[in-house]
């Protein structure tokens, strides 16, 4: 083998080693059997081109939305809805959801202790699954 062929062969080998290292650097889990895992990262967030809107147009749009919301509030107040009453309903819904979460947690623990499913406990205690 001539020295030129030897140098060329060594150059090809070193190029292959560099390429292998580059590909290996892109692998997040090198021993995975899934090919997609070894692909380059693609962000799930795609940057969409937004049309450029002038600040004046943006302010005008926000003022239109504000006026629309104020007119809807006035309409609801005419129908007899009060903010205080709605706040009470919201508070009661939060309390109900907290109590329901605790109840479901307890049913899950009882089911685990009895070695059964929560579905079976719902029927045992006369509860409806849809509630």
UniProtKB/TrEMBL annotation:
Instruction: Give me the stretches of Basic and acidic residues compositional bias.
Output: 1-11
Gene3D superfamilies (alphabetical): 1.20.5.170
Gene Ontology CC annotations of this record: Swi5-Sfr1 complex; Swi5-Swi2 complex
Q: Which UniProt keywords apply?
A: Coiled coil, DNA damage, DNA repair
Residues folding into a coiled coil are 52-86
InterPro entries for the chain: DNA-repair_Swi5
Please give the biological process terms from Gene Ontology that the record holds.
double-strand break repair via homologous recombination
Q: Is Coiled coil included in the keywords of this UniProt record?
A: yes
Under the heading Pfam families, the entry gives:
Swi5
**Chain positions covered by the region annotation Disordered:** 1-22
Q: Which family does it belong to?
A: Belongs to the SWI5/SAE3 family.
- Tell me the function of this protein: Component of the SWI5-SFR1 complex, a complex required for double-strand break repair via homologous recombination.
The record's note on quaternary structure and interaction partners says:
Component of the swi5-sfr1 complex.
> What is the protein's given name?
DNA repair protein SWI5 homolog
